[in-house]
Amino acid sequence: MQTRPVPVRTILAAIGLVLATYLLLQLVVQTRRVLVWTVIALFFAVALHPAVDALERRVKHCRRSVATLLVFLAAIVVIGALVALFVTPLVQEGTRLAGRLPGIIQDARAGRGPIGDLLERTHALRYVRQHREQIRSFATGLGTPALAFVRSAATTVAGAVTIFVLAYLMVLEGPKAVDGALALVDEARAARIRRVGAACARTVTGYLTGNLLISVICGVLTYIVLLVTGVPFAGLLALFVALADLIPLVGATLGAVVASVAAFIHSLPAGIVAVVFFIVYQQVENHLLQPVILSRTVKLNPLTVLLAILIAVELAGILGALLAIPVAGMIQVVLRDIWEHRDGRPLKLPMRGDSRPEIPHRAAGDGE
Prior knowledge:
single chain, mainly alpha, globular, 12 helices
């Protein structure tokens, strides 16, 4: 049986496709930092977009550029207020720590105080004395990591400014880009895409605001408990607990362990109170705060949440852990809509601000 030769055009097309794929992967690898900034900016834009729409709709003669500017200025004010709320006790606690640090170190060396007693019981002082030269050489080599830290801080500041500008432009010009893209499809499909997009936006907005609110509540309650029990540097510990609580599943436990250890170092009663508080609070957060705050935004079962977080952490680290749940919620919305349309039952997702009731209908081309 004689085989026909493969056309040269097919061979060239296959080679071109492989090269294009390779170049695309290289582009993604080389620009991964910019892509991460873009994704973060997109989430912030989605979170602030409803506020801009509401202001533009409710205030007469308010142009979108003005509404966007006002909303972003309000966001800056809120962020600045939160930073000031945390930085003020942070500076005070840092000053106290700097003033007490020489005495703490001296007591620890002599085996006095709560830290000294702990080091003496765990034989840590003996280990330090026996490995003094290794520790000194390790401390000498910390100059390079410090320089890397300064560079990382500068990159973080540049990234924050870039994210802010990108989010502002996305909110300002996003509707025009979306309208232009949807104009390429028929009206029924455009309405379907808008409904699904609105549901995805509600998922992102609800998760970000809800998770931030829960973390603030956790930080404030932790600060009150540590302050009442007399644990030193309660502000620093509470800030760490609040930031750790932003990480799904493991964040609350990590913050609780660190704060409880600090409380036990201070005194045994303070440690017991801290452990009891975190056990009770995590039950309240898991069974009351999260269902109430996130019940109408992200609806995912625990197995899906765990798998999403594990995969996202492997792909994008801490950033992936923070964005895993809203991304999984968006995927769930899209998949549910596709499944509903396969059965001829379009997913009824009313758009934000649309006061008209949704009328179920089959999209054009769904029954093809």
